[in-house]
Write a structure and sequence with these properties.
The chain is 43% helix and 13% strand. The chain is of the alpha/beta class and 486 residues long. The protein folds into three domains: 91 residues, Winged helix-like DNA-binding domain superfamily/Winged helix DNA-binding domain (Arc Repressor Mutant, subunit A); 236 residues, Aspartate Aminotransferase, domain 2 (3-Layer(aba) Sandwich), CATH 3.40.640; 108 residues, Aspartate Aminotransferase, domain 1 (Alpha-Beta Complex), CATH 3.90.1150. An eight-stranded mixed sheet has the order 3-10-9-8-7-4-5-6, with helices on both faces. A four-stranded antiparallel sheet has the order 11-12-14-13, covered by helices on one side. The longest helix is centred in the last third of the chain and has 28 residues. The radius of gyration is 25 Å and the shape is globular. The N and C termini lie far apart (63 Å). The model has no long low-confidence stretch (mean pLDDT 92). The structure holds pyridoxal-5'-phosphate.
Length: 486
């Protein structure tokens, strides 16, 4: 069991020495309590044999863990996990005297990184990622909430069990199988408080601090915050017309996690090709990494059938599918779900529940009924037409005003488009747009790496049909003026 856990974490192609990797793997096992205080570790000879390492490698790793206080060694008896870990000792130690007196000890470096990350702009026409909440069936929802309260018993007011309400997990499993070809049982579904919370759980429960995570570049800044909070090393990976395109050299230091938005890449709108999906799954299996598939708006595909999920073609149990009701219903609902591979689902749900107890059973009851009585599918069908009409209107006005000057792309799915601009001009457009009460999120602001394409993100989800032409014309004129002066 221990031997398997350790063997799975060793990568003979990685730049770190095997002794260092073994040290890290045992330390992580101690910190996540897979190895319990007082537990006896195999002898260096036995572990070396089991994991296929040189004995000196194991001795070196054990010696470092002993020096750092994770292990204690008893002559003649072997090595044991220490009863008090160095992390606990550090916490108990008196705080070092502050160098400068300040009003308060301040936030952590992680918090600063979270605050420093670029924000998706809000508060104006064309703000990205904003659905139209005015079309939500309020009266129907009120009825379902009232019915849920009537049906609840005192016991339902306690914490909910790990994973969320069974009835909602079942309704979601049925929905994603049908709508997104996700293959799962209800037990693989874990209800979370928004995709952001689900991504945070993935970062914390599937990776350890310092491990590498890949994401598309440009990419979603919200998930970068989550990765910074877990002290993961975020590595931007370039995109091409088929989606995330890691180079062979990138695979020389494989990541622990890969975060992708394959149905509608955020923000470019690129749909990952089947060829690239297969290659990524195959490489992830070979290098033993997790893939997080964030399907934030894949339900709104305007041409052809919605694309099947990556999870649905994964035979290797690598993919965690993330779905949210923020775009399909309303963001304030704060309900989303993860679909985990079967081997880890139960332990993941338990660990998640230990980190933040589950509750909100009334809302979960109402949502389960909303889905299983067909209202959810009907709402999506209705909203798909609404968004398609808005996208078409925006495209018509834009092309009429600008011809081929700022070509649009990425609009087959979701609720935003990209208008391409020469590099360096998007910030100017954004500033002028803001002054006119509009939003034009610069594409360059969403990159981590240096290679940046110019463009702006145009979110049309919440711009009403009656207003879209007027706002599109105003923004197109700003773009024309900037292009002329640039
Ligand atoms: C790509 C992407 N993923 C995740 C989210 C977060 O969704 P939630 O509101 O469920 O946290 C968003 C929100 O805009 C998004 O654009």
């Amino acid at each position: 069991m221990l031997e398997e856990l350790l063997a799975a974490r060793l990568d003979r192609g990685a730049p770190e020495t095997l002794a260092h990797q073994l040290y890290g793997a045992i330390r992580a096992g101690i910190l996540d309590a897979s190895l319990r205080p007082g537990q006896r570790l195999p002898s260096s000879r036995q572990l070396a044999l089991e994991v296929g390492l040189g004995r000196n490698t194991v001795i070196e790793a054990y010696a470092r863990l002993t020096d750092e206080g994770y292990l204690v060694s008893r002559v003649g008896a072997g090595s044991f996990v220490a009863a008090t870990l160095p992390e606990q000792l550090l916490q108990a130690a008196p705080a070092p005297r502050a160098r400068r007196r300040s009003a308060s000890p301040g936030l952590s470096r992680r918090a600063q990184a979270i605050l420093d990350e670029v924000a998706i702009e809000e508060g104006g026409a064309f703000a990205p990622c904003v659905p139209d909440v005015t079309a939500f069936p309020f009266a129907l929802w009120q009825r379902l909430i009232a019915r849920a309260w009537r049906q609840l018993r005192a016991g339902d007011l306690r914490y909910a069990g790990p994973g969320g309400l069974p009835k909602l997990r079942a309704a979601i499993a049925a929905h994603v199988q049908l709508a997104r070809q996700v293959r799962c049982t209800p037990e693989q579904v874990v209800i979370v408080n928004g995709a952001q919370h689900g991504l945070d759980l993935c970062a914390r429960l599937l990776a350890d601090g310092g491990e590498r995570v890949w994401m598309e570049d440009p990419g979603y800044p919200g998930v970068r915050r989550v990765f910074y909070a877990s002290e993961l090393q975020v590595q931007p990976i370039r995109l091409d017309s088929e989606g995330m395109a890691p180079r062979a050299a990138d695979w020389e230091t494989p990541p622990r996690l890969i975060y992708i938005t394959p149905s509608h890449q955020f923000p470019t709108g690129v749909v990952m090709s089947l060829r690239r999906r297969r290659a990524l799954l195959e490489a992830a299996a070979r290098h033993d990494c997790w893939i997080i598939e964030d399907d934030y708006d894949g339900e709104f595909r305007f041409s052809g059938r919605p694309l099947a999920s990556l999870q649905g073609i994964d035979a290797g149990q690598r993919v965690i599918y993330v779905g949210t009701f923020s775009k399909s219903l309303f963001p304030g609902l704060r309900l989303a779900y993860l679909v985990l591979p079967e081997p880890v689902a139960e332990r993941f749900a338990r660990a998640a529940a230990q980190l933040g107890f589950e509750g909100r059973q009334v809302t979960q009851h109402a949502l389960a009924d909303f889905i299983s009585e067909g209202h959810f599918a009907a709402h999506i069908r209705r909203m798909r037409l609404v968004y398609q009409q808005r996208r078409d209107l925006l495209q018509q006005v834009w092309e009429k005003e600008l011809g081929t000057l700022a070509p649009l792309s990425g609009g087959d799915t979701g609720m935003h488009l990209i208008a391409a601009l020469p590099a360096g001009l998007d910030e100017q457009v954004a500033v002028r747009a803001r002054a006119a009460g509009l939003v034009a999120q610069p594409l360059a602001s969403l990159y981590l790496g240096r290679a940046r394409q110019g463009g702006i993100v145009l979110g049309y989800g919440a711009v009403h049909e009656n207003d879209i032409a007027r706002h599109a014309r105003a923004l197109a004129r700003i773009v024309k003026a900037v292009l002329k002066s640039g």
